[in-house]
Structures are given as C-alpha cells and as structure tokens.
TrEMBL record:
Main location: endoplasmic reticulum
Record-level GO cellular component terms: endoplasmic reticulum
Subcellular location: Endoplasmic reticulum
Family per similarity comment: Belongs to the peptidase M20A family.
Keyword Signal: yes
One of the Pfam families matching this protein, by short name: M20_dimer
Domain Peptidase M20 dimerisation: 260-372
Species of provenance: Lupinus albus
Gene3D superfamilies, sorted: 3.30.70.360, Zn peptidases (3.40.630.10)
Protein name according to UniProt: allantoate deiminase
Function description: Involved in the catabolism of purine nucleotides. Can use allantoate as substrate. The sequential activity of AAH, UGLYAH and UAH allows a complete purine breakdown without the intermediate generation of urea.
EC number: 3.5.3.9
GO aspect biological process, one term: purine nucleobase metabolic process
CDD domains attached to this UniProt entry: M20_bAS
Length: 482
C-alpha cells in the first residue's frame, strides 16, 4: 500500500475513533473557539504533542548556517541559536536548564525524589549538510513535549525519579569527522586529546569552544562524564531512517540493537603530472588506483562470503550476520590539485563500514585493508589507512525495550482504540547517541516511521500523527516509569 494511502486510511480511522470517543463520553473536548480543552481531552494532548511539536520541528528546521538548506554543525552560529530556541522550550516545560562545556543543552526536573537515579532522554541537535528537519530534533522535541504535558496536568513534580532531557551538540561528526562529541563526553568515552582535533580549516575543538565562551581544560573535559551510579537509563526517540515501519504500516517500532560502525580515511599518493604528456604505461595515478579500491570495497561488501576466510567455529553465524547487515559506503572523495588537465598527486576518500557482528566487521576491515595495500603496491602508489571512528554494536536493554513497547501500545490505543498488531522490533543500521550512552548506562530506543525511509535529505518526512504517537509513547513511558 502506498504511503499516502496508508496515511489517508490512518487519518480516517483515527477520526472515526476520535468522534466515537466523543459520543461515548457524552461531552466535547473542544472549547467555544475551536481549540482543544486539555482538561477534557482524555490525555491525548493534541495541541502539545502533535500541533506544537510539529510547529517546533519546522521552526528548528529554519535555524541553519546554510542559505536555502539545513546545515547545523558542532557549535556553529546556527547551533548556538538552536540552543537558545530549545532552551526556551525546556523552560516552557518547567525544566531547569544549563549548557555544559561541550555545548550540550540540558533540561532537568527532579521529580518526587531528587536523589534517585535519573532517566536521561536525548538526541542530537546537529545535522548533516542539506539535512531533513526530523533527524535528531524529533527526539528532543518529543521528550520536551511529553514533559510539558506532565507539567500541565500537575504530574511533573510527581515523577518517581529525576528526568533529564539532553540536546547533544554533535552526533553526526560533520565538522570534525569525529562522531558523538556531545554524548561521548557525557558517557566518558572521549579522551582529552579530542580537544586538539581540528576541522578542515585547522580550527581545533578547543578553539571553537573558547570562541563560544565555553572555556574547557583537559581536567574539566574529563569531569563532564556522568557518574554511572547517578543514572538509571537512557532513552532515545529517533526517526527510523529506513523503510521497515512504513512497509509494515506501523508508526512506531522498538529497537533491539544498533550496528557497529567504523570510519576509515584512505589517502592514495602517486606521481602528479601533465595529463597530455605522461604515457599511460608510465603513470602512477592515484585516481585510477582509488577507483579500483572503491570497486573492491563494493564487491567485498556485497559478497563477503567470496572474500573472507573463517574458522569452522564461527563461519556460519558470521557469514549470515554479514550477509544480512553489512553495508559499506564511500561518502567523500577529494583530489589534489583537482584540475582537469593534471594527473592528481593525491586522492583521499572515506569508507563507512557497518555490521551487527563486531567480529565480522573487524574481519572485513582486516581483509579489505590487506587487499588495498596489495593493489597500491601493484600500481606503485602509496596508501595510508587511518581509523577515524570505531563503535561497537549495541544491544538495547531488554527491560527498557519491554517498557517502550508497552508505552507504544498505550499511545496507539489512546489514539486509535484497540490495537491487535504487535509493535515491530527492528535493528538499526544507523548510529545514534545511544551507542555512546551505552558505555554509561542501559539504553532503549523507539523508532518513528518516516516516508520512504528517506533521511539525511530535505525529503525526510514524518506524519503529524506519527509525531503525536511518539510524544504519547514517551508520555506513557514517563507515567509508568519504574
């Protein structure tokens, strides 16, 4: 069934159930001016969890460093404006707010027991270049909206434990090619040397922080790490960034795990020369070499069983895992001096390799690296392979996942009545802040359906009612939190 057809059916079905509830309760939830009366809305909180949340997502989507497209990287001018916007929303929900020395924005309520272990809810406010408006932002806005609903109905201060919403400053790693700068600092997985990492303009993270009045030393940087004993768990709401939920016709899904990922930077150096005077047989062309290396990567990742050798003990499980989850991407390539009439002297490209099986992913990287060096030797060019990022696969906590599944059921029952279909459980091929936070505490994730599975694109889209469902699910999770 097409996405628009599903959306129309869901909308009609919801309206039928909505008006049936009105008749069965014998009273209208609308006030005289046509707006929703929250005190009579059966806790659906339409204005906050749907209408206001949608408006806020679009408002945040306009906070950009780019003209005509969305780009918001680590501590850029737009990122600092986004902090101001989100902070006002947090304060609107009656949360205490602050910005830490890594640019993460926090909003916290102590609840009924300030000394209890805290629930952390978060996602990232940075974006890729030419991004969609839902990636990262949906998790932040949904959490704030749910807490605002609790504030309005007088339940915020009655929460069993403290709840803290965190808008992480960097997850995508666009500016410094180092992901999880925000959540990694809080989880304590970043070394203090991270402060000396520089971007393409040779500006360091430490300098950027200082420019934004966020003075940080190596000692204070390490102190950003939360004490694991003070944290109960971490929950993240995120768009699926894939087509599964749309395919099964369900707005929400529970994540059971996140694929491990490795980012590599490959530099191929050859002999720069004139495009018209150097015979083909005498060339040491890094561009041609890089092309062969990229095609090798694609072939290996499509057919790992034809390239890799395994011992008898793990061959079957590893091969099956790689066949179902291995994905490899070259997303960036640059040449020097990059002129049409010059044989390049250097070509640099990135490789992004992901798989659910960490051992299998390591085997892929080892075998691919070995073959890269062999090809470079054959072509008389030099190759350097740098590891820019490594993150192991993460399995979500079964208890949190069970509670999120119950919360998703509750949300959809509130919206549509009795639900017979089981909430889907799926794996994530994309990395999320939950990967970093898993080093600090147990984690759980809730996916939200997105049209066509499209993400990292202006075409990224989530239905208004699916945003509503996500907000209701977080609200239900908070209300029933252990």
């Amino acid at each position: 069934m097409a996405y628009s057809t599903i959306a129309t059916f869901n909308k009609c079905f919801f309206l039928f159930c909505f008006f049936f509830c009105l008749l069965s309760h014998g009273s209208s939830i609308f006030s005289g001016n046509g707006t929703v009366d929250l005190e009579k809305s059966d806790d659906l909180f339409t204005q906050i969890l749907r209408d206001e949340a949608v408006a806020r997502l679009y408002e945040l989507g306009k906070v950009s460093d780019g003209s005509g497209y969305l780009e918001r990287t680590f501590l850029s001018p737009a990122s600092m404006r986004a902090i101001d916007v989100i902070r006002k929303w947090m304060e609107d929900a009656n949360l205490g707010t602050w910005v830490d020395q890594m640019g993460n924005l926090h909003g916290r309520v102590d609840g009924a027991n300030a000394s209890a272990e805290a629930l952390l809810i978060g996602s990232h406010m940075d974006t890729v270049v030419d991004a969609g408006i839902f990636d990262g932002s949906l998790g932040i806005v949904s959490a704030i909206s749910a807490l605002k609903a609790l504030h309005i109905n007088g339940k915020l201060q009655k929460l069993r434990r403290p709840v803290e919403v965190i808008a992480f400053s960097d997850e995508e790693g666009v500016r410094f090619q180092t992901t999880f700068l925000g959540s990694g600092a809080i989880a304590g997985i970043l070394p203090s040397t991270t402060l000396r990492v520089s971007d393409k303009r040779d500006v360091t993270i430490e300098s950027v922080l200082k420019e934004n009045s966020l003075e940080v030393t190596e000692e204070s940087f390490l102190q950003l790490k939360y004490d694991s004993k003070s944290v109960w768990g971490y929950v993240e709401v995120h768009i699926e960034q894939g087509p599964v939920l749309e395919q099964v016709g369900f707005p929400l899904g529970v994540v059971k795990g996140i694929a491990g990922q490795t980012r590599l930077k490959v530099t191929v150096r050859g002999s720069q020369g004139h495009a018209g005077t150097v015979p083909m047989s005498m060339r040491q062309d890094p561009m041609a070499a890089a092309a062969e290396l990229i095609v090798l990567m694609e072939s290996l990742c499509k057919n790992p069983e034809k390239y890799l050798s395994y011992d008898d003990q793990c061959s079957d499980s590893t091969v099956k895992s790689l066949l179902s989850s291995l994905v490899c991407t070259v997303g960036e390539i640059s040449t020097w001096p990059s002129a049409s009439n010059v044989i390049p002297g250097q070509v640099t490209y990135t490789m992004d390799i992901r798989a659910i099986d960490d051992l299998g992913r390591e085997d892929v990287i080892y075998d691919l690296s070995k073959r890269i060096y062999q090809i470079c030797d054959k072509r008389s060019v030099s190759c350097i392979i740098e590891h820019k990022h490594d993150a192991g696969a993460v399995i979500c906590d079964s208890e949190l996942s069970s509670q999120l599944k119950s919360a998703a059921y509750s949300a959809l029952r509130r919206m549509e009545g009795d639900i017979q279909v089981e909430v889907p459980t799926l794996m994530s091929g994309a990395g999320h802040d939950a990967m970093a936070m898993s080093h600090l505490t147990k984690v759980g994730m809730l996916f939200v359906r997105c049209r066509g599975g499209i993400s990292h694109s202006p075409q990224e889209h989530v239905l208004d009612n699916d945003i509503w469902a996500a907000g209701l699910a977080i609200l239900s999770f908070l209300e029933n939190m252990q």
